[in-house]
Amino acid sequence: MSEIINQSLTELVENVKNKKLSSTDITKAFIERSEKSKELNAYITEDFTSALDKAKKFDQKPNLDLKLPGIPMAVKDLFCTKGIKTTAGSKILNNFVPTYESTVTENIWNEGAILLGKLNCDEFAMGSSNETSFFGNVQNPIDKNFVPGGSSGGSASAVAGKLTPITIGTDTGGSIRQPASFTGTVGLKPTYGSCSRYGIVAFASSLDQAGPMAQNVKDCALLQEVISSYDPKDSTSIDFERNHYSKELTNNIKGKKIGIPKEYRVDGMPKEIEELWQKGIQYVKDCGAETVDISLPHTSYALPTYYIVAPAEASSNLARYDGVKYGFRASGENLIDMYEKTRSEGFGAEVQRRIMIGTYVLSSGYYDAYYLKAQKVRKLIKNDFDAAYKKVDAILTPSTPSSAFKIGEKTNDPVSMYLNDIFTVPVNLAGLPGISIPAGHDSKGYPLGLQIIGKAFDEQNILNIAFAMEQKINFKNKIMDWWIK
Amino acid sequence: MSKNNSEYLISRKDNQYEVVIGLEVHAQVLSESKLFSTSATKFGAEPNTQVSLVDAAFPGMLPVINEFCVKQAIKTGIGLNAKINKRSVFDRKNYFYADLPQGYQISQFKDPIVGEGKVILDMPDGQKEIGIERLHLEQDAGKSIHDLDPQNTFVDLNRSGVALMEIVSKPDLRSPNEVSVYIKKLRSIMRYLGTCDGNMQEGSLRADVNVSVRAKGSKELGTRCEIKNVNSIKFMQMAIEYEANRQVDLIEEGKLIDQETRLFDTKKNETRSMRSKEDAHDYRYFPDPDLLPLEVSDKFIADLKNNIPELPDDKKKRFINEFKLSPYEATILVSDIDIAKYFEEVVVKMGKNKDMKLAVNWITGELFAVLNNKNLEISQSPVSAKNLAILVNLIKNGTISGKIAKTVFELMLEGDKDPQKIVEEKGLKQQSDPKALEALIDKIINDNREKAIEYKQGKEKLFGFFVGQAMKASGGKANPQLINEILKKKL
Amino acid sequence: MSIDLKTIKHISKLSRISVDDKRAEKLVDDLNSIFDFIEKLNELKTDNVKPLTSVAETTLKLRPDEVKSKNIREQIIKNSPQDNEDYFVVPKVIE
Q: What is the pTM of this model?
C-alpha cells in the first residue's frame, strides 16, 4: 500500500472498505500534509481538530456502505458550510458563519466524508489566477510564484499538492477547468442544472455550476455521482436521471465521433497548445473514436458575451452585501454613506470593477445594446453547439491558451486576464458539461490540459472519453513539493 | 360610457380643468406562505419572526415560487375580466434600501401574468368602465421603523417577500369619488375571490396615485405626478384634491409641472416632493436568472375559471332578477361579500312567504346603523342572520308591528337573543284580534265624542289622535293596520 | 463609445460603491479597455434572434403553499453587525 497521501480517492475508499485504513489514519495524514503546506496558502479556514474528532467518531461506528466513508475533504470557500466560516474569499464576508449547509456539501457529508477546511479562491469567484482573494494569493504546487489558476485556485492547488484527496470547486467561465489545467489535475464542470446551487455564494446565476476537482478521472466520476442531485430548493435544478458515473465508467469509446472546432485555433495561440491538441486528436483515434472537423462560428464572441452577462448578474447578486444583515459593515453618517463605504472597503478591486460593468450594461439606455444583445449572441452560441451535436458526440479542444503564468504577471491588464477563459467560457454560456484533463507539458515543464465538451446531461460520455484518453496520455504531474521544508 | 353629469372640475377664473387619475394598487395575496419562500405571512407577528434565510437574502439562497400565489393572481385576473398570460417572466427590480435585503425586488416588468381587463363601477348616474392595464406578482418589502431611535432605523423583515398583486389601472378615473368607488370595487372583487382581504389598516391594500390635470375637453394628457403609498381611501381623495389644485395653480401661473414622485403628508394634508430622489431610480430590470419563465396551461386556467364564486356584478344581476331588488338595493347588498353572505342567509332562513323588501330595509337600515355606531363589520354583527330572519318573519306574519320590532331588535343586540323568545317573555305580541280591538276603539270613540264629531266634520288630522289613543290604550301592542281599518270604519 | 469620469461617478452611485478620484480615474481606463473588447459584439447582426432566457432545459416548478420556515429570528439576526435581538439596525436614511 502506498503512502496515504499518494493514494487516489478510489484507492482510499477501497482501503477503508476493506479495513486496511481507518478514517483517522487518512485524516491525520492529510492534516499533517496540510499543516506543512502553509506556504501554498490554499486554505482560508482550517477545521483540523474537528475533522479529527469526526474521523474518530466515524471509526467507532464505520458505515462502509457509504460512497465516501470517512474520507477527509477540503472544499472551496464558496460553499456555505454550517457552523464553519464561509468567506467567498472576501473581506465583506470575513466573519460570516452560515447556519445552513449547501446542498452539494450536504450530499458529500451524507456519504461519509469529513470537512478538513475551506479552500482559498478568487473573491466571489471572480478571477483566473486566485490573485483577487482577500486572503492572499495561492501558490501553484508546480512551481513557486506561479498562479494555480482561478477562481478555484485553492482547490486546484490543494488537490495537486495532495492536501486533500479530492475537492469541489465552482465554474462560471472556467473556474474549475482552467485551474485544473494549470495544476495538472482533472476538473469537471457539469451540465447547468446538474448540481444544486442552493447554498453556494452566487456569482452569475445562469452560469455557476459546482463540480469535482480530482487527481484522476475515476475519482472525479465518483464525486460527481455524489454531488449531482435534483434539488427543489433551486428552481434551476433539473430533474433528470443521473448515471452512476463511476460504476458506468468505461474506456471503450469506439465509434464515438469527436468534433474538432476550427474556431478554437485562435490567432497567436502558442505552438505548444496546437501540438498538444493534435496529440489529443491522435489519442482519441487510438482509442477507436473518430474525429470530425466542425465549426462553432460564434466562438470568438463568447468572451465578450460572457463579460456582459456574468458581471450583469453579479452586480445584482452582490447587492445583498450591504452590511445590514451580516458580514462587514463600515460606519457611515447615514444609510447611503454606510452602504457606499461598506461596499467600497469590503469588496476588492476586481469585484468592484465587475459590479460597475454589470451595473452599466443593465442601466437605462444601455440594456438593449449590451445585455439584450449578449443574450441573443448567447443563443447563437448555443445554436452552434446544438448544430454540431447533430454530427458529433463530443468536442475536443485545448483547456487554456497557455500554462500557468507568474503571480503578478497579468494583474495590471484585466483583458489579458480575461483571455485565459477563451476556451472554457463558451461551455458555460451554452450550459453544457466540460472536463479538463492534464494532457502534457509545455517547454517549461508546466502542465497543459485538454478539454472535452459534451452534450447536455451527457457527463458519462465525456467522463468515458476522458478516462480513455487519460490512460493513453499517462500523465505524470511533476510536483517537487518545493514548499515543504 | 354614460354621461357623467356631475363632473369633477377645478375652476379658476375662466378656465376649467379636469383631473386624470390612474392607480397602481398593491394588494397582499392571501396565502399561508410567501411568494418565493416558505415563511408565514400572518399580520402582526413579533418582528423578524416570520423571516426565512431566503427572505433575509443570505448567501446562496434561492427563490422557489408558491403555486397558490400564482392561482390567486390568475383568479384575480379573471375577476377583472382580464387576459391571462400563459407565459410570464419574473424580473429583478434593482435598488438599495434597508428593508430590501436582496438589493432587488423580484417583480414582473415586460411580461406580467395578467394583461388588460376592466372593472365596472356603479356611479350615481350610471355605470362607468375603468380599464385595467395589467396585474403582476411581486415581492413586498420589509418595514423600516424610523421612530424607535433618534439615530437609527430599525428594520423588520416579516413582510419582506410576501406576495403582492400590483393592479395598474388605465388613466380612466376622473374624480376623488370615482377613485373611492374603484378601490371599493377592486377590494370587493378580491374579497369575493378570497385573493386579498383588502384590509387597508393592516396594509393589505395600498395604492400609488398618479395625478395629472388638463383643460376641460382636452384629449392630451398632462404631466403626471405619482403620490406614493397612500393607505386609506380618505387620504387618497384628499391627496388627489390637493395635488390637482397644486398642479392647476402652477399651470395658471404659467409654470411647468415637474414629473416627480411625491408623498402625502397626512398631518398637513398636502403632497410634497420626495427629497431623496437625487437621480431618478434606474431599476435596471432584467429577467431573474434564478427563475425560469412561468408557464401555465389552458387547463390550469380553466380549472380556476370553473371554480370562481359568483362575483359582485353577477350577484347583483341575480338579486335584481330573482329577488326583485332595485339596482340601488342590490348594489349595496353585493358591495361586500360578507354583506352579501349575510343577506343570502337571511333570505334562506326566512323560508317561504318571505318579505324581501322588509329584509332589505332591516339590514340596510337598522342593522347597518348599529354596525356603524359600534364600528363593527357585518361579520361581527351582534345579531345573526338567522335571528334577523326570524324577526322579519314575525313582522311579516303580523305577530309584532314594525314599531315593536325595533324594541325587540334592541333587546336582541345583547347576546344575539332569539326574537321569538323576547316577544314571548316580554309579552310584546301584537294585539290583532279584531273583536278586542273593536271594543277598544269603541271605548275610545265614546270617551272622545267631541273629537269624533270634529273629525267627521273634516278635521282629518285628528285621525292621528285616535290612532295614538288606541296605541296608548293597548300598551303599544295594537296592530296598527287593524287600528287604521277599524277606525276608518267607525269614524 | 467611451466611458468618462462622469459615468463612473454615476455608476458608483447606482451600485453604492464609493470611489475616490484616483480610483475613479483607474476605473475609467479599465472599463474603457474592457468595453473596447466587448464592442466586438456589434459585428454581429442579431435583429431576428430571440434572446436566451435560460440554458436550464426545464419549466419553472411550483411549490405547495406550506409554511416550512418557522421562527428562526435568532439565526437570522445573529450575524448582523449591530447588537439588537429583535431588529436589524441601520443608520437613518435622510428622507
A: 0.92
